[in-house]
Amino acid sequence: MRSTRRAASTVALACLLLASCRSGSLGTSPSASPGGRSPGAGASGTAAPSGSGRAIAVGAGPQKHYTVQQQPAAGSCHVRYEHGEPLEDPQCTPGAISPAVTQANLKSTICRKGGYTSGVRPSAYVTGKEKKLNAASYGFTGRMSDAEYDHLISLQLGGDPNDYRNLWVEPADPGHRKGAGVNNKKDPVETKLHTAVCAGKVSLAAAQRAIVTDWTTALSSLGLT
After folding, report:
1. Cα 65 from chain centroid?
2. Considering the chain, what percentage of its residues have pLDDT values greater than 70?
């Protein structure tokens, strides 16, 4: 009887200890973060692609009737300077291309003699309103007549005509005399790129990528200087 009682007591004690260990291990395990997602992960749990590898957005393309586009929040965009020249904020103005212009149809679009850019450009009524809104986005307080409402990827390079991602209030070059009107060094760069694309020296995509990366180095990066 005594040996039986001892065996029963030993078994009972072992069961109590085992239950205690199991309870303790569950109670001390670290809790998972909400949703089972590690801290710092994005909404999908994966990191967003880097800016340098991101494809250029495709806009709506030419429209029969353009409407005033909503702009980034006031004060949310900031002009930066490279080689003494103003550059857009890539977060606000990353560029957008027109689906109507492709490498295959250059001769009938941007490379045809006259008519393309004037035929797709939004009216001054629309761009005038957008320019004021975008100036607030960039915190621009200078003379509006000295700033250009610029297509980052120009129309002659297949840029989208009225996508807010492709338009920004470009300040005048440093040293520009106030009241002298629009005068910047980006326009000649665009013209040279257009000539090179139409001559088959560089591809349309390469020219577009060079201009959104840094227009001040676009020509040299493509070996066109």
Report:
1. 25
2. 72
Task: For residue range 129-176, list pLDDT tens digits in order.
Answer: 999 999 999 999 988 988 999 999 999 999 999 999 999 999 987 765
Q: How many CB atoms lie within 10 A of CB 199?
A: 9
The DSSP output letter for 126 is H
35: left (phi over 0), alpha (psi -120 to 50) or beta: left
Instruction: Catalogue the long-range contacts made by 174-180 (C-beta closer than 8 Å, 24 or more residues apart).
Output: 174/81, 174/84, 174/85, 176/146, 178/142, 178/143, 178/146, 179/143, 179/145, 179/146, 180/146
- Whether this model's pTM surpasses 0.85: no
Angle at 200 between CA 196 and CA 204, to 5 degrees: 70
For the chain, the residue count is 225
pLDDT at 115: 82
CA dihedral angle for residue 137, residue 164, residue 166, residue 216, rounded to 10 degrees: 0
| Alpha-carbon span 130 to 154, nearest angstrom | 17
